[in-house]
Design a protein that fits this description.
Strand content of chain A: 15-25%
CATH topology of the largest domain in chain A: Aminopeptidase
Largest interface: A-B, 64 and 64 residues
Helix content of chain A: 25-40%
Radius of gyration of chain A: 23 Å
Structural class of chain A: alpha+beta
Number of helices of chain A: 12
CATH class of the largest domain in chain A: Alpha Beta
Shape of chain A: elongated
Oligomer: homodimer
Chain lengths: ~400, ~400
């Protein structure tokens, strides 16, 4: 029986976390910055030291492959190592280094798999510096053209292709070359469900669809003391009504539906002036496309109702719209079996966040393994998962790979 | 019959508006800045050129006096000439230059009043650079000690006394020396009521009481995709509920009550994060102290209800609390009579904004004359009042002064 070396895995997580460490103890390795390069260099050295065959494609995705005995399509693991501006140490890195640990476990035990085993580092999953997010996996799955991606300008005004070249990760392998037999991404949940329910492993079967809208409300900025209530066109009040309505819609749709107004920017934002303009954002998510559409319809109805009620003009812009992704049920079942065999409590669940796995699901059987996040916190230096959970997650990843390599039908 | 020279008055308004003009066409003469000094120098020169006796007190208030024939206490006019960061040309200046025009009308007609006539420029009415606002008139009315005012630090880190000295307006007259027979402040309405009702003159009989509260809501910042609705402590949603409740309270109290949430600052203010903290402000106003208290009570009840409902912590800080001010009914009646005699439509009304007159009301019979503001806009380069309204306002000011000087009993 193979066992992962958790001390080694944890040591690598720690070492990578030192690259781009922030004063608050977080990680800052924004895509294609010097810190991202340093992180890539570090992990690539570990890959090469293990004797893996490393390829870099034209969008900077890194693939490390252990050849199997039967020349079968690779079972691929992996995730990303770029971070948000002040993120945690586990988001993405656990999937990459967990995958590397699985491969090293095979190697040090002299065990040769039938399938090739691969671990991928996808470029720019976070989308914090270059948009869209999940860019490397999206291009790998033919969802975005390389030329379009190359023209992308970062928040700090740099062209993506030049940044890739500058940090030495503009590879020559064509994008989408490696089509896996299956893709499994180990990741922290980034939500509170596993912790609250005291469950160790999530077998992720869906990724929520996302509908992001920017809303601009134009009212009339007026003196808060001299403008009678009946003469107001208060963009701040309209924004409040809309925020309350987004919550009501979530309650009406029910189930796993979530709706959030996260950004509110009123102008002039003064104590004694009725807000003349408000910009806000609405984030609606559901795993069921029909329900997501239903929530969008209710939201649109609310816009016109509120515009009429308060005498404001409301315009919207769609910032992002992704349909829900259904992962491969067979892969999710293998994950469940693996957890059960290891005696780890587990549940089938949805991902509320986006992940590279949802892009890979377009080209091969895919699912994800979640481990609990303390307080559900992520994209924050406080992001934390207890070590025994990290270990369990890597063990489930190893066993899942073994089962698939052993012939579980996909 | 005396008549004001509107062309002269309007010319002075224009000339003063050139001092500290902003790129958007507004006025920027923040209290005790170089621009404020330049404005003061200009108006003081006009006062001196008219042969008025000019005194400056220890808080920089400027008083110009025309001696009357009977050595009676002065009938005082005036207002302020400091502005907000990008304000209009009329707010304050109309009251000062209108008062100066009334005095010049007496002089050029060789008419000597029984009472002294005075025009005042009060220091720092706006409170945009040094707090509190209405500072000069407040000190004149013994509502704030000079020593406390001297220690005030501006938003840009300067001590008030040093700034007074630096611009040459630290006078030597004791504050509160001149106690008027009556005080009349001509001002733009800064609200929409006169315009909407097509009325030329407001005889202002009350100033609303003001209750300003800063509210801090602490919830839990969480991922908008991964946090089920049932597990949220959403400070943004709580802020929206509170904003809606402030409107409901205004409707419940009714009448002239106004309630406004003007500032909303959520953190982290990201599209995909449930707001963990929100700071907002609540502005409640009523001319009736009991009703203002009632609205404060309803507001406090709402805080605890919402805190419990959403599982957030809410704390508050009182930023300002002024009881309503009742002006002198006799002075307001004289204004009404003056407008009627001039054939100008008029109404008794409240002031929703604060004015130097409300401080002067503590020490002498006081009322205000309002003229319409286009779209109710003020504190903005778009602030505008048609010239014929400005002229009417100055005419009513002159006639009101004549009536009081003529012996209307106060």
């Amino acid at each position: 029986m193979l066992n992962i070396n958790f001390k080694r895995l944890n040591g690598r997580l720690q070492e990578l976390s030192e690259v781009g460490r922030t004063s608050e103890g977080g990680s800052r390795r924004l895509a294609l910055t010097d810190a991202d390069k340093a992180g890539r260099d570090l992990v690539q050295r570990w890959m090469i030291d293990l004797g893996l065959e490393v390829s870099i494609d034209k969008i900077g995705n890194i693939f490390a492959v252990l050849k199997g005995s039967a020349n079968k399509k690779p079972i691929m693991m992996g995730s990303h190592i770029d971070t948000v501006g002040n993120g945690g140490h586990l988001d993405g890195c656990l999937g990459v280094l967990g995958g590397l640990e699985v491969i090293e476990t095979y190697i040090e035990n002299g065990k040769i798999p039938e399938h090739d085993l691969a671990v991928a580092i996808f470029t720019n999953e976070e989308g914090a510096r270059f948009q869209p997010d999940m860019m490397g996996s999206l291009i790998h799955a033919h969802g975005l053209s390389l030329e379009d991606a190359y023209q992308t300008i970062s928040n700090d005004g740099k062209k993506l292709k030049e940044e890739l070249e500058r940090i030495g990760y503009l590879g020559d392998m064509e994008c989408g070359t490696i089509i896996p037999h299956a893709f499994i991404e180990l990741h922290i949940e980034q939500g509170p469900i596993l912790e609250k329910e005291n469950i160790k492993i999530g077998a992720v079967e869906n990724v929520q669809g996302i509908s992001w809208t920017s809303v601009t409300i134009k009212g009339q900025a007026n003196h808060a003391g001299t403008t009678p209530m009946s003469m107001r066109c208060d963009a701040g009040y309209a924004a409040a009504l809309l925020t309350v309505r987004v919550r009501q819609i979530a309650e009406e749709i029910g189930g796993v539906h979530v709706g959030t107004v996260g950004v509110i920017n009123p102008k002039p934002n003064l104590i004694n002036v009725v807000a003349g303009d408000v910009k806000l954002t609405v984030d609606l998510r559901n795993v069921d496309e029909e329900k997501l559409k239903q929530s969008e319809k209710l939201f649109e109805d609310a816009l016109s109702d509120i515009a009429e009620l308060e005498g404001v003009e409301i315009s919207t812009e769609t910032l992002a719209r992704f349909e829900p992704v259904k992962f491969d049920d067979r892969v999710a079942c293998v994950i469940t079996q693996a957890a059960n065999e290891l005696g780890l409590s587990n549940k089938r669940m949805n991902s509320g966040a986006g992940h590279d796995a949802q892009m890979m699901a377009r080209i091969c059987p895919t699912a994800m393994i979640f481990v609990p996040s303390r307080d559900g916190i992520s994209h924050n230096p406080k992001e934390h998962t207890d070590e025994h959970y990290l270990k369990s997650g890597a063990e489930v990843l190893l066993k899942t790979v073994q089962k698939i390599d052993g012939g579980t039908v996909l």
